[in-house]
Amino acid sequence: MMQHRSKAHDHVVPMLNAVEHARVLARVLASPVIKGPIIRRPNAVNLAERFDADAAGVDEMKRLRAKYGDGPVQVRLTPGRRVALLLNPDDVHRVLNETPEPFSPASLEKRGALNHFQPAGALVSSPSARRERRPFNERALESGKTIHSHAETMTQAIREEVEALRGHLDFTGTLDWEAFSTMS
């Protein structure tokens, strides 16, 4: 789901009516929000599993796709704040190709979640700042190369961290967030 920013494209991306908004909020968006979009809440996850909340979300997405076609559709979250709800995997390509305008990846939720870790990250930047920051990221990530020039060093560090994590798992019999988050 991406924030839709341009009024020029409103005729291309239909807006859901009030009843559909309520259905999407209750059946599609409530479950991931309640379960914890970044850090999962185990009790909420168990409750959502018990009520098969994800299946209800899938059913609602299928219903919207049957009505609106492959499209994305717009959901108004608050006055002046809209997001595009993608109904077809091909929409992902459209959104990526039309980012950061009219579809912005810098949603309020994403900025809130990532600002702590990357306050100046390209992903949560305004379109103009993103244009400046993105080339640096592309160079650092070496996205044009099949294998990063530091791949060997990174692979070794990952192996060491995973081995430490496996040691914890062998010792305690569980893999929990505390062990995972304290890997050095």
Rg, Cα atoms, Å:
20 Å
Number of helices: 8
Coarse structural class: alpha+beta
Q: How many strands, which pairing sense, and closed or not: the largest β-sheet? A: 4 strands, antiparallel
What percentage of amino acids are in beta strands?
A: 5-15%
Tally the beta strands.
4
**Percentage of residues assigned to helices:** 40-55%
Q: Give the SSE string.
A: EHHHEEHEHHHH
Average pLDDT score: 83
Global shape: globular
Strand order of the largest sheet: 2-3-1-4
Indicate the low-confidence ranges by residue numbers. 2-11
Description:
The chain is of the alpha+beta class. The chain is 55% helix and 10% strand. It is built from 8 helices and 4 strands. It has helices at 18-35, 42-50, 53-68, 89-97, 108-114, 127-141, 151-172, 177-181, and strands at residues 2-4, 72-78, 81-86, 103-104. β2 (72-78) and β3 form a beta hairpin. α1 (18-35) packs antiparallel against α3. The protein starts with a strand and ends with a helix. 14% of the residues are buried.
Q: Could you write a compact summary of the structure shown?
A:
This protein is of the alpha+beta class and 184 residues long.
